[in-house]
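Justification of resources, computational component.

The compute hours requested in this renewal are based largely on the per-chain cost of generating structure records like the one below. Each record pairs the submitted sequence with a full structure-token output. That output is archived, and it is also reused by downstream analysis tasks.
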Amino acid sequence: MPSMVVLATTAVPDHLRGALSRWSTEVVPGIFVGSVSARVRDELWAQVTAVVGDGQAVLIHPAPTEQGYALRTAGTRRRIPVDFDGLTLIKVTGVTQPANAKKTQSA
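The structure output for this chain reads:
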């Protein structure tokens, strides 16, 4: 039985966006909404995780949880889902600088 899914992407390859648009509608750049079966949802997620690279992706789909949905994430991200007594909360981590970035000194 099909159910609604929302998939949010940032900085992913164009061919991935094309693959996602075959099964869903890109309502705004990077946000895909569709109604697919669990099997199709899992196959799409497998494609996303295989090619996300330095980008980010979040999948939200119905699940038998207290909140009524489940989250899946892939790629580099500052927001990490954390289970807290059966509720999914979002942990925000600090911004990391690249290893070769110069530090500024205050005078």
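The radius of gyration is 16 Å. The chain has a mean pLDDT of 89.
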